[in-house]
Structure formats: structure tokens, C-alpha cells
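Milestone 3.1: sequence recovery, worked example.
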């Protein structure tokens, strides 16, 4: 037995190699077990939440944990083999800096995506206001189809499917029309009328009745339609109808239908809208 040499390759023993392999395999096994455990527990918790994006967070977290454990196992195995990992870590650092400079926009979107996941200003299915940079080209609103770590998929009210960078969304004011705390959304319709009190009074009464009879108008919790005399201008009176709907998809269609009913009602009852005037002044 004394004649058997257990040293090979730069003085490494079979025991060291065995321990290194054990560390590496342990890292792989622990990584897989930890990933599955976190995924199973996370999915169970995600079933009790109202955010579909929680499933993606669980998947990302479980994969990140497994890769971290793999890396730790590999580093420990290299250390046992007397391999200096400092240059490797330094190389990772330099590589990370280079990647950060080359992909700063991608990193910005990833960081913004992380904060969107944490803050949860909207969920899949919500209707939101599009960022100002693209809001005028394809409609002002859109429905959230999917929330990714780099981009958010939104279908605009014009039917255009867009992949919007998360950094663009996070840097703008986020307006969510589908908030669950208070589902009622107020809609305003402003009308200019001829400056005649009888005309104004009849118009206000008719407009309020039209809104009250519309089945799409939400009137629960004291949120009944209201008509106010908003302002008296130099040549007309401005009234404003205020009513609520219970979903954002009803806002435009309900407003359109009510305006059509108002025009028909004014024609029938001989109620006069204000008309533009051009005033010539003699000097």
C-alpha cells in the first residue's frame, strides 16, 4: 500500500478531486431541489393572489436561486482543486461592466420591470393610458396583455399590439382605468348653450333625464348623473353632464350614445346650442 501514489496533476490527490466533484454535484442537486421547492411553494401562494404576473415572478426567482447555488458549488469545487478563483471573479466583474455599458437600455428595462412587478400599478387585463411618446399614434388607451421583465405587451383601443419597453412605462405617469378599489369611472360631457335661462333650464333637465335612462350609466352608491352650470362665457353658457360607468370599455361608447340622444332631444324640444360669432369692432 505504501508504494501506491495517490498524487497526480500538480500534486492533487484523489481525495481532493473526489471532494471537488462532490461539491459540484451537491450544488447541482441542491439547486434543483431548492428550485422545485421554491416553485411549488410560490405557485401555491400565487393561486391566492389576483395578479397573473405572480407566476412569472415565481419562475424567475426559482431559476435565479438554482443558478446561484450552481455557481456556489462550482466555486467551492474550484477552491478545493487549489484553483485561484480571484481572476475568474475579476473577469466576471469586468465582463459585467462591459455588458452593463453595452446593454444599458436592456438593463434599464429590466430594472423598471422589477419595480413594476413589485409596485403592481396594473395587472394583466387592465386598461391603462399609453405613454405620451406613443399615445397619439395608436390611440390613447390600451389593455395589458402580458407583463414581461423587459417589455409589457399592450393592445391599444385601435387594435394595435405593442411591445412597450418597461422603462418608457415606468418613467411616465401610470394611469390605470381598471383599478379595483373603486370601479366607477366618471365621464364628462360639456355643452355650450344660448344665453337664455329658459333654454338653459330645459337643457339641463333633458340632459339629466337622458343620462338617468341610459342602462350603461352606473348609479350605485349615490353616483347618480349630475348636470351643473359650469360657466357663463361672453356669448354662451357652459353646462356639464357628469355620470359614471363601471368599466373603462364603456366610457367612450356610453358618451357617444348619450351625445347622440342629447342632439336628438335638443332638436325635438327646440333647445338651442350656442353658435360661433364673429364680432367686428370699428376703430
Amino acid at each position: 500500500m505504501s508504494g501506491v501514489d495517490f498524487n497526480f496533476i500538480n500534486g492533487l490527490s484523489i481525495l481532493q478531486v473526489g471532494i471537488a466533484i462532490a461539491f459540484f454535484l451537491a450544488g447541482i442537486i441542491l439547486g434543483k431541489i431548492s428550485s422545485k421547492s421554491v416553485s411549488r411553494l410560490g405557485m401555491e401562494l400565487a393561486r391566492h393572489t389576483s395578479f397573473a404576473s405572480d407566476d412569472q415572478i415565481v419562475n424567475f426567482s426559482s431559476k435565479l436561486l438554482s443558478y446561484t447555488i450552481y455557481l456556489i458549488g462550482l466555486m467551492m469545487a474550484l477552491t478545493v482543486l487549489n484553483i485561484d478563483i480571484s481572476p475568474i471573479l475579476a473577469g466576471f466583474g469586468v465582463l459585467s461592466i462591459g455588458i452593463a455599458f453595452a446593454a444599458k437600455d436592456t438593463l434599464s428595462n429590466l430594472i423598471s420591470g422589477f419595480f413594476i412587478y413589485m409596485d403592481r400599478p396594473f395587472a394583466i387585463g387592465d386598461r391603462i393610458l399609453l405613454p405620451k411618446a406613443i399615445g397619439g399614434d395608436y390611440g390613447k388607451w390600451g389593455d395589458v396583455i402580458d407583463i414581461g421583465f423587459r417589455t409589457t405587451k399592450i393592445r391599444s383601443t385601435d387594435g394595435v399590439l405593442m411591445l412597450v419597453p418597461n422603462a418608457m412605462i415606468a418613467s411616465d405617469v401610470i394611469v390605470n382605468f381598471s383599478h379595483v378599489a373603486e370601479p366607477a369611472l366618471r365621464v364628462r360631457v360639456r355643452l355650450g348653450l344660448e344665453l337664455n335661462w329658459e333654454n338653459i333650464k330645459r337643457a339641463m333637465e333633458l340632459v339629466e333625464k337622458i343620462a338617468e335612462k341610459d342602462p350603461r350609466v352606473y348609479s350605485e352608491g349615490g353616483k347618480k348623473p349630475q348636470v351643473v352650470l359650469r360657466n357663463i362665457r361672453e356669448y354662451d353658457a357652459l353646462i356639464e353632464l357628469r355620470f359614471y360607468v363601471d368599466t373603462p370599455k364603456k366610457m367612450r361608447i356610453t358618451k357617444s350614445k348619450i351625445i347622440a340622444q342629447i342632439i336628438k332631444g335638443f332638436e325635438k324640444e327646440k333647445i338651442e346650442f350656442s353658435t360661433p360669432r364673429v364680432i367686428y369692432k370699428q376703430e
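The two ends are 124 Å apart (CA to CA). Residues 1-8 have pLDDT under 50 and may be disordered.
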